[in-house]
Amino acid sequence: MDDLDRRVLGALQKNNRLSFADLAELVGSSAASCMRRVNKLRSDGVIVGDISLVDPKAVGRSLTVVVTVELDRERLDLVDDFKRAMRAAKEVTQCYMITGDADFVLIVAVEDVEAFDLFVKAKLYTNPNVRKFRSMISLDRVKFEPRVPV
């Protein structure tokens, strides 16, 4: 990956709806070169998707909760079961397996405290491999930038 690839990625992370002509103008290249590079970045798995970012509040998910989860046993099959359950949980917008005191960090977006309580009861309390969890309610989203520095 060269500097032009990095400029292309940076521009697309800000606005992936740019035409190749507009992208070329932003990064100082030709439209044809940008098209080839973007297609290669997609085929190489560098660009993994083109999505629209939605404001959670605009769709009724005004409560964001950061949850740390500690598992009881770290057997591979049980860890995989937990990962599968979190992937399937519509309330979980992000899930990270981490090092340190906890095993996972979840970002949960729900309508309100009652909806979070239902999530906890359905997904965490009922999982026999969850030893404990801690919840931190977000008061203010200070930075929301799902971009990777390139």
Structure summarized in a few sentences:
The chain has 150 residues and is an alpha+beta fold.
How would you describe this structure to a colleague?
It is a single chain. With 150 residues, the protein is an alpha+beta fold. Helix content is 39%, strand content 20%. The chain contains five helices and four strands. It has a four-stranded antiparallel β-sheet. Strand 2 and strand 3 form a beta hairpin. Helix 1 crosses helix 2. The longest helix has 13 residues. The relative contact order is 0.16. The mean pLDDT is 95.
Keywords:
150 residues; alpha+beta; 4-stranded antiparallel beta sheet; 4 strands; elongated
The N- and C-terminal alpha carbons lie at a distance of 10 Å
Gyration radius, to the nearest Å?
Answer: 20 Å
Spans of at least 5 consecutive residues whose pLDDT stays below 50 are none
Structural class: alpha+beta
For the largest sheet, list the strands in their spatial order. Answer: 2-3-1-4
Number of helices: 5
What's the rounded overall pLDDT mean? 95
Helix coverage percent of residues?
A: 25-40%
Strand content: 15-25%
What letter string, H or E per element, gives the SSE order? HHHEHEEHE
Number of strands: 4
Q: Could you say which overall geometry the principal axes of the C-alpha atoms support?
A: elongated
For the largest beta-sheet, the strand count, sense and barrel status come to:
4 strands, antiparallel
